[in-house]
Structures are given as structure tokens and as C-alpha cells.
């Protein structure tokens, strides 16, 4: 399985979309996440190619994840189209679910969509009995690292040369606290 949470393709995005500068105040409240449908495949592929420079999920891989009952692929719509998606893997033998991919359309960033998708997937993992959620992120992906840190993810281990271009990664984990 290829590394999760690939490098954002900032070079391919409009200047305002680069993830490094802090984003402005939120203009919109995020719509609710919903399960992805087969009809979303083209929009998911477009999000992939706009968001990641390499190691993209192929059409075939996305279709596979869409049809694997133990995976959760959620989207949030803007203007009737998926503007963000996130994929969680929940194999039976794992104690922690794994966030495998998360991408928000450059025009919809900074509006809480990433955080909303993450929270929705965490709720799914908790309901399915997992102890928490684990993920990998590039050390140089400041926006994603801030999102995960704010959501309670803590560094588990450093992953030297984890990515195809030799970049360092971090494995992060969030342990669920027992419900009151
Ligand atoms: C990382 C990404 C998913 C964040 O999605 P988003 O919808 O823009 O994030 P949100 O609006 O939900 O922001 C939630 C938190 O993330 C952090 N964050 C988001 N964008 C940020 C930015 N440009 N700079 C710094 N922190 C940022 C902040 O902590 C923010 O909380 P705050 O608004 O209270 O400060 C999005 O930038 C993206 O798709 N990037 C390209 C693909 C990618 O890197 N995916 C992750 C792979 S691990």
C-alpha cells in the first residue's frame, strides 16, 4: 500500500490556495459530510489530481474503496459537487482505523471542510469499536499537521524518507477517550 496523505501539489494551485499562509475568517459553515456514491467518481479523481503531486489514487483504486464496505469514503458538496473528500480504512484486524486520504478543493479551503470530514470519520471509527485513528502526514505539510494537531493527533513515530521523493513523514495517532 502506498504512503497515505501525499504531498499537496501547491505548484499546480492558484496562489491563494497554497496551504502555508493562515487562512482568513470562515465565510461559510461547512455542509454535512455524506457517503460518496459511484456517481462521484469523476469529481473524486479531479480532487485527487488537483490536490496531490504524486502517488495519486487511481480511478480503479477509488472505485475499489467506494465499493469496500469496511472503508468509509465521505464527501462534502459545494454547488452540488464534491468539494472535499476523506477516506478511512477500517480492516477488522486493526485496533486503530487509518485515515488514508483527505483533500479539499483549493477554493473551499479554510472553511472547516477538512475538520468536518475528520470529525465525521472519527465518529464512524468510534462507532465501529476502534480505539482511535492513525495516519501519516508529510513533515512539510504545515496545514495538515495543524489540522491534525488541533484535532488531538499526537506524533507516534517519525518516518524518514517515507515518501517517494525522500521526504520525511510522521505517523500520528489519536486515542479516543471513553465516552462519559
Ligand atoms: C490540509 C487540508 C485538508 C485542510 O483542509 P481545510 O478544509 O482547508 O481545513 P479547515 O478549514 O477544516 O481547517 C482546520 C484547521 O486546519 C489548520 N489549517 C487549515 N489550513 C491551514 C493553513 N493554510 N495554514 C495553517 N493551518 C491551516 C488550522 O489549524 C485550522 O484550524 P483554525 O481554522 O481553527 O485555525 C487542505 O489544505 C488540503 O486539502 N490540502 C491538500 C491535500 C492535503 O495536504 N491533504 C492532507 C494529506 S495528510
The tally of domains stands at 1
What is the CATH fold-level name? Answer: Aminopeptidase
Ligands and ions found: coenzyme A
The name of the CATH superfamily reads Gcn5-related N-acetyltransferase (GNAT)
Range of helix content: 10-25%
**Strand-and-helix sequence, N→C?**
EHHEEEHEHEE
Number of DSSP strand runs: 7
What's the tally of helices?
A: 4
How far apart are the first and last residues' alpha carbons, in Å?
A: 36 Å
Largest sheet: 7 strands, mixed
Strand order of the largest sheet: 1-2-3-4-5-7-6
Average pLDDT confidence is 87
- Strand fraction band? 25-35%
What is the CATH level 1 assignment?
Answer: Alpha Beta
SS class: alpha+beta
Overall shape: globular
Could you list the spans in which at least 5 consecutive residues all have pLDDT below 50?
Answer: 9-25
Assigned CATH architecture: 3-Layer(aba) Sandwich
Radius of gyration: 15 Å
Protein name: Ribosomal protein S18 acetylase RimI
GO molecular function, one term: acyltransferase activity, transferring groups other than amino-acyl groups
InterPro entries: Acyl_CoA_acyltransferase, Bact_Acetyltransf, GNAT_dom
Organism: Roseospirillum parvum
Which keywords apply here?
180 residues, alpha+beta, Aminopeptidase, seven-stranded mixed beta sheet, 24% helix, 26% strand, globular, ribosomal protein, Ribosomal protein S18 acetylase RimI, GNAT_dom, acyltransferase activity, transferring groups other than amino-acyl groups, ribonucleoprotein
